[in-house]
């Protein structure tokens, strides 16, 4: 009985922790959508989440850590949706289709568009200096797709990590440059051309 009570208490604690974590990220999302990243403060997030500032400070030392956690959650949900979407064809065709669908989703994602609209310079380090946690998350997803293509013979054999990295860099440029990319051009036509290029590059 004592052991069962301890297990129950642990589960309840973990559930409470998750609830608080999601509440903090939800509040951060609302703040960023309203005023952008630079004008979002820990105090504002704590008020929106209805928690004390100390509760927030213990979990996240600054807004940067909060936003990174939020973006990682946002991308994880998007990738899950893309992966679960009904896709026909071999692994290469699925990778190409899922890549373009992910671009569409990100290009219409309110949070991503708000960041690009108000705080685009915050993305610069992840283009010139290092890969961020969300980029790593997407890359792991792509590696799995490429390896599946190696197994079914639909993707030319090569180093899966290298091939996935090239796909990542190619597709992220479309997401981050949607506005100039669509200047005088149809977005759907651009994605169709991207799909053809990806398919040709990966085909055996």
From TrEMBL:
Which residues form the DNA-binding region?
41-60
Say if the entry is tagged with keyword DNA-binding: yes
| The name this protein goes by in its record | TetR family transcriptional regulator
Keywords on this record?
A: DNA-binding
Q: Give start and end of each HTH tetR-type domain.
A: 18-78
Pfam families this protein is in? Answer: TetR_N (PF00440)
The record's annotation in InterPro entries points to: Homeodomain-like_sf (IPR009057), HTH-type_TetR-like_transc_reg (IPR050109), HTH_TetR (IPR001647)
Gene Ontology molecular-function annotations? DNA-binding transcription factor activity; transcription cis-regulatory region binding
